[in-house]
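INFO batch 0412 | record 1 of 1 | parsing
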Amino acid sequence: MEKDRKQTKWFIKGKVDIAFLIIVLVLLSIGLVMLFSASYPNAYYYKHNSLHFISRQFLFAVAGICGMLFISKLNYKVLMPLAVPIYCLTLLLLVIVLFMKPISGAKRWIVIANAITFQPSEVAKFAVVILFSLLSCRYGEKMKTFKYGIASFVVFLLPIVGLMLMEPHLSGTVLILLLGAEMMFLGGSNEKWFMLGAAIVVSAAVVLVINPELLTFIAHYADDRIKIWLDPNSDPLKGGFQTLQSLYTIGSGGLIGMGIAGSRQKYLFLPEPQNDFIFPVVCEELGFVGAVIVILLFVMLVWRGFVIAAKCPNKFGSLIAAGFVSQVGIQTILNIAVVTNTIPNTGISLPFFSYGGTSLLMLLCQMGIVLSVSRTSAIEKG
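INFO prediction complete | emitting tokens
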């Protein structure tokens, strides 16, 4: 009876997973240092203040850490009744953003008082993890059937995907689809449907690479990105410029790099070094060794998150912990794949590193939920 009362409390006193917390804080610290180093030339040139990006990001980082520590004390089970309302809020935000003024040719940001911007796609990631975790718990063994394990999830995923394509936000759509598939797999959907889906995706990818003009009906810029991906030198001063500069930046780092603040490509050669293309600056300043260390930190974060998920005796807690660290892992892989021209340029940010205050705040709060799972796991096992 005492154990049940502890599980239903809003606040939990269990021990937090120190290893996971340390990894998060180390990644955040390195990310802030690299953001300052990568951003100050652009900040000075375009904003007339070299501290413009880092000062805003630092404030959100402090708020995010406070939010993470506070949320880590909450019982993650309070999210269960909020899953559907959060999903509905996500759809509302994705509709609202379609009426916003375009920024860089896309309607992806909601602007508040001309000062704060955020992407509803960040809320969409959170909503998918929470809702899919709840549905997996409710369906149980029915997850092995197509009706419950695949179709019922697709019904919830399609509205989000459709609205994001209308922005257009192809990169976010790809991320949401991968995250949704990951949650379905972790939830217990039959493996044969994933094998069939993978075969379809690979076949479609081959067809689109051969005939990129078929992407025009999805997004007018997608076919051009495929062509640039296959041959960046075909348009070195426009379409392929960012990709080529990214590769030059990565190659300039060599084995041990040029040292912190030593990057030369960030001085208005590499576009958006503080955003999606911050990892090339990491490679140039920290070299191959430093880049590998950063990648290993992300690997450790995902691994430790799955350890926390595996130790949790509650399926909902296990799934949300695995889901949130999977999101970080998928996003990191896609970002590094983009800047190395392994996949077409899709505009995916690097977690903990890329500029974006509201996205960093939400990311740290998600890490707080993972820490909450680690606290409650200790109590439920005790």
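INFO post-check: The CA atoms of residues 209 and 226 lie 7 Å apart.
INFO record closed
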